[in-house]
Each structure stands twice: as structure tokens, then as C-alpha cells.
Design goal:
Order of helices and strands: EHEEHEHEHEEHEEHHEEHHH
Strand order of the largest sheet: 1-6-7-8
Helix content: 25-40%
Largest sheet: 4 strands, mixed
Structural class: alpha+beta
Amino acid sequence: MPRTAVASAIAPRAQTGLQSYVFTSESVAEGHPDKICDRVSDAVLDALLTQDPEARAGIECFATTNLMIIGGEMRVRGKFGPSHIEEIARSAIRDIGYEQDGFSWDRCKIQVVVHEQSADIAQGVDGGAHKDEGAGDQGIMFGYACDETPEFMPAPLFYAHEILRSLSEARHSGAAAELGPDAKSQVTLQYENGVPVGATSVLVSTQHTESATQHQVREIVRPHVENVLPKGWMPREESFYTNPTGRFVIGGPDGDAGLTGRKIIVDTYGGAAPHGGGAFSGKDPTKVDRSAAYAARYLAKNVVAADLAGKCTIQLAYAIGISKPLSVYVNTHGTGEVDEARLSKALQEHMDLSPRGIRTHLQLNRPIYARTAAYGHFGRAPEADGGFSWERLDLVDKLRAKFGA
């Protein structure tokens, strides 16, 4: 069933002095070529972590017409060979729903060229008797949260994700059998004084069967958009776009090549916040591209949920082989109730931001990553097995107590 958004569930604080403006974010479905690659990379990672919670991985995929190449690095205790990786890839492709002439789970060629992790990288990352575990690479990572939705996510991206998730559920259930796995959405919202008040346009492009007409596709898509957007937010009919080219039968890797890690803005905040440039999928949690971005989101979300700010951006910076972050930057964009320097210090008191500290606090050495590969890594509900642990709000009371909020 589509998830119905309730506008009254949130009350974002207005930001006076801002002009009225529009902002757009996009999402892509699990059958998008890049997302297929993300899914396979993370499915391999999950299998590695199931076999060895201390496994290391950097798995990358490329997909085109009936071909997938899986490369990268790994380190795992026990046997884990190319045939195992190929089996995981085929299972993931089948689960997404690809059984088409140009890309099929059982007929596409899969080439595996994964090798052992570099010893030079390992010696910088591995901990020891006199050395804590270091970061797997240098880099900057950002986390963000805002009060635009109950999930503390930017509203355009949140609704773009939910539209595609709703369509995917209908496709998998058979309720929308005319649709294919590949799809994209784009939502443009009108803001007044920093608060979203309605959609000025919605675009959905979705793969479909040869027999489906553009009008049929539009009417299949319509209720999913209407049920996801808050009441009264549906744009004018002429600004509700579905398959603007008129035809989308050829899709997935047969229509466009896919790569792991190419949808980093879709994966995070839809352009509403900065991005450090590092992708997530296929990387084990010793790699701060992933784990530190999760930690930054966790901290930012707890800050906003504690009513200490209406928006919060956190930047972390690391050096390869060094355990502690080089910097912890907090920006509340003029919406903060407390001093940002004090807030930065308090957050570091409540969470060890070394790679080991992050993995321990969020319990990241578990097979919880394939589910992150589509519809965003953030704004999801924490799950009983530890999935999306970075979405927990277990620091809220501590932060409120710290600042008397």
C-alpha cells in the first residue's frame, strides 16, 4: 500500500528573511542501472560480513546489455570465490525483477575480477596492540537533518523516494504489472520562508511493457503520487509529467550502462546539503566514506530531533591511517538554539568518532547494507536487526539534558 504523507505531522520552523523559492530533488528506482550495481555491490558485502564480521571490501560493478563486471578488493576469512559472487549477483538481479531480452538474471554474462585488499592499505587501517584502527582513506563526509518531514529529511527528496517505493511495491505485488523495474522521479516544491508548502511539478519516468500506452502509464502512476504527497500538494495537471518522451520500454542496463556509486546525491540529501564526494555501496564500515557519513547523519538528526536546531549540517574530516577525525564542524544555518562550538564538543563527548568507535556505536559490522542500495540511505526507520542504526534517536535526551532544552 502507498505510504500516505500527513502534512500536519510536521511543523517546520519558518526562517524569516528568506525569499520564496523552489527546490528540486530526484530519486531513481532499484531497477535503475546504477542502482542495480549498488545493490549487487552491497549484496556481496553483506555475504562477506555474514561469513566474517571483520571482512574488508571495496566492491564495484559495471552493467550494460546482458553483461555485468564485478571488480574491486576484499579480505575475508574462509573461502569466498568468484562463483559465490556470481551467484549473489544473479540473485540480486532476479529479485529486482530483470528477466528481459537485453538484461536477464539468468542469461547475462557475469565476470568477476575481485582481488585481495592491498597490504599497504591494510597496514594503515588495521589496529594493533599499540595502534588504534585508522581511517581507510582521507576525505570529508557530511551529515544533514532538517525539520521539513517527520523523518528529518529534505521534503523534495523524501517524496521523490516515496513515490518510487510505492510504485515498486505495486510492481512486485502484481498490482502494476505493466511497469518495469527501471524508473526515475523528480519533485519540485515551493518554499515560503524556508517551509515547503506544495509541489509545483512532479516528474515520473517509468519503464513499461510494450502494450502499455502513455495514458495508461500516467493513470497507473497518478494515485501513487497523490497518496504520497501531503493533501493539497498535487501540482497542476500540466506540471504532472509522466514519461515525457512518450515511450520507455527499453530500460535498465540495456538502455544505459550502470556503475556502482554514481547516485551519491540520490543516496543522501537530494542536493539540499553538501556532499564530500565519496560513495557508499560496496564499502565495508572501516571505510569512513560510508561509516562517517552515517555517523554525521546520526548526530545531525539527533540535534534537530532534540529541538536544538531546525537544520543541522555536520562535516567530518579524516586522514588515511589516523583514527581520530581531523575536524568536526557543525552548522545550524541560523536556526540553532545553542552555540555551535559547544554543540560540536558535546557531540564528540557522546560519540567516539574514530572508525572503530563509529562501527561499535552504530554496530555496523553486520549484513545490513543491501537494503540501503535504493530509496536513500537516510530517512529510513531503524530496524530490529540493526539496519539503519544511524537513524536512531537515542541521543535526544542526553543532548536536551546537556543544554537544558
